[in-house]
Amino acid sequence: MAIRFDEAQKIFHLDTATSSYVMEVFEQNYLLHLYYGKRIPDHNLKRLKYKGSFASFSPSNLLVEDGGFSPDICMLEFPGENVGDFRLAAAAVRNADGNNATDFRYESHTIDAGKPGLAGLPALYVEDDAEATTLEISMKDAVTGMRAILYYTVFEHLGAMTRSVRLSNESARPVMIEKVYSTCVDFPTHNYDMITLYGRWFKERSEERRAIVHGRQTVSSLRGSSSHHQNPFGAIVSAGADEDQGEAYGFNLVYSSNFSFDIEGDQNGGMRVLMGINPDGFDWLLQPGADFQSPEAVMVYSDQGIGEMSRIFHRLYRKHLIRGKWRDRKRPLLINNWEATGMDFTGEKLLSFARVAKEVGMEMLVMDDGWFGDRFDDRRALGDWVVNEEKLGSSLPEFVQKVNDIGLKFGIWFEPEMISRESALYRAHPEWCLHVPNREKSIARFQYVLDYSRKDVRDYIFDAMRKVLSSANVAYLKWDFNRNLSEVGSAAVPADRQKEIFHRCVLGTYEVMERLNREFPDLLIENCSGGGGRFDPGMLYYSPQIWTSDNTDPIERLTIQFGTSLCYPASTMGAHVSACKRTGYDTKANVALWGSFGYELDPNTFSAEERETVKAQIAEYHKYYDLIHSGDLYRLINPMHNAFRAAWMFVSEDKTEALVTSVVMRRPQETAFYLRLKGLDPDKLYREEESGEVYSGASLMYAGLNLIGTDLSDGSSFKLYFKEVK
Ligand code: DGJ
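# DGJ complex -> structure
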């Protein structure tokens, strides 16, 4: 059983393939945290149990046999606020008396096969109850009458678990939730490094590593999206851990709005790690009898380095986060017109794209921004989701029919959460965008953000989208989001609920996305936010791929794709070959092949030779699709750590084939180049396709390949494909 409760010792033991997670119900029903780390099968955990100790200035409210007890110096599972623990609290609830003293104690628990969904929120799922086990611990604050249900789901075979919290007001008076984190883990030492992903528009998710110190260290978002700037991912790794060795704990929040990942190094040398909704900008009024469900946090443990942590995330997300038809179905190879035309296109121009695209083997034409209302530039028309037939030269169904007749599927762009100041919708409903009374609304890209906390707004937009989508044979939708939220307030909720709007808006977005998924189950949805501004597991629940970045320069893409791969699988990363100036088509395709492959250019500009190159790339896309989309990723040379080269490889699950890619970012200092491969079976023999040479897996991994003589010029690259020989 993946989850056990030892009645005699009052200990919970949660096991996965790689990890154990242990808690103790202590005196006075304090729920203590005992251990999270490499799997320990033991039943006898006496030595882990809390031993009292004393620290001056740490209040003691209970005496135990062998010393004092203070919540301030022990490892707590769900610490409250203002009750003697001075570290960051996992929850704080201001009660009707006006104070926020919050103290949850263990009351009861259940252990069941399977995993429940979270109402209104994206979450990992199982198809068969045998795939996971769930523990629900019911905690009660005796003074305020608040209840907290702590959910722990263990994906035993995958080395992963999820956590979330549901707060219920069981008192007779309203309370205000000031904060509720989704997960909180105390560690006995803070001798670790922290890895997070920072960036900005056009430069998303660069890896950053720093030693954890005493005090608080945080990465977060207050932008109303998970953001380009920090990702709701963080890893805690042992000092010196690298791709292949050392401990790595990965945390990822299934949420697309304001998050916070906090670490506090404490006086005992320990640390507390928390992840959840950012408490800044958040309050939630909970009436008697009402519930509040936190988003879900995912936790992965590996004792085989950061690389294995990533591969656990990838396996987990491919099977238990991505949903629907496109989880397992091969995704069409698309061409998108945005970088080639912007909004300056006609139906005829797009059809000319489609003809060449078909000839070289592409499978779908995506019509990006500019097809609706008077959207000739980015100053207008968001919200007016009516096809501009004059621009297209026909109605949408007629146009799509022409694309289909050429032999391509058709996809379309929307930005459903936005409204232009210059739009019929804004003129009709200025109160439908987020705003606060008497204060000017900040404008960004000439647009405001629709108030998705309002059902009338969501219904209106969904109906407008439904009209377009059901009018023609639309196979794909790109859902874009091109600004962050400011002056966050709603005309539709009372003053004491205004700090709920960030969260209510993202719940509204999830609701519309869920309706789209249900009503159009065959539609492939690609998420986008000015590139990868909402690259998070929340969005992946509704859309199996995300446009990774507006930056399509293949050298720039390397750090973005390496960073993104820390927890997101290749199949989720939209990656296109574009007309950008740097590197030739070979390198552009070698880099884009890493993700959900496509093109973003005017194919009419291809020379005869380029057409043949592109045809060959498309053949490679088909050849390597399964290996890349379902194989294991090994990062060989990380461009954040090496100024000259990057290299990575995919290995099939059965280790019978592998694809290695290497790119020169800048002419290397040394000409010698020995590349050690990873993830192969040392006892298998592999033939390298181009040279025909056969090597053992052991030789490829331990001695490596001598690659002296490969092209050293800036932007050059190569691929090597290995197949097992029996
Ligand atoms: C930002 C996206 O990232 C681009 O790909 C494109 O869709 C534009 N928006 C359109 O406005």
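# post-check
The mean pLDDT is 96.
The pocket of DGJ is lined by residues 338, 368-369, 413, 480, 482, 528, 530-531, 547, 550 (CB under 6 Å).
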